[in-house]
Amino acid sequence: MTNGAARLAAAHDVVRRAQQGDVEAFASLYRAHGPAVFSLVRRMLGDERAARDLVQDVFVRAWERLASFRGDSAFGTWLHRLAANLVVETLRAARRDVLRFTDDDADTTPATRSDTDAIDARLDLDAALVGLAAGARAVFVLHDLEGYSHEEIAQMTGIAAGTARAQLWRARRHLMKRLDP
Prior knowledge:
Elements: H1 3-19, H2 23-45, H3 48-65, H4 75-101, H5 115-123, H6 125-130, H7 134-145, H8 150-157, H9 161-179
Helix pairs in contact: 1-2, 2-3, 2-4, 2-7, 3-4, 4-7, 7-9, 8-9
């Protein structure tokens, strides 16, 4: 057995043990995949504190749905999809709440920044992402950073694939303006 095959077999074993209720095996999965999930969630939300909270929700949901993981894809891929779906659900709920309590479309109002923050945003993609509307940010992260197709994004978010393309174009245009010196 090659080194790669041995690692793959060990990873499958950890997932199988976690599916059988082994809390230590699940903790191992959390340690292995937590940083990547946090990075995805933080980029999609644009808020570190909210991302930390949501990562916990992602792993709670993963624990609850672990039996549904069949191994057709890598565990990390399954977990990323679960995280992206949970972020999209959270963004939808937040948007519904905003629309209930205000007449303004808060989703299109960029966050204000001090001059120092604006300079940092030009140098830092994560900071620049915060200035995007939530929908455009989610589409950008899912497409350009995570590699999902427009059709997959449309299915995950409940928007048309053409809308996802338009949001991606807007996001890229905004980011180019923010990141161009």
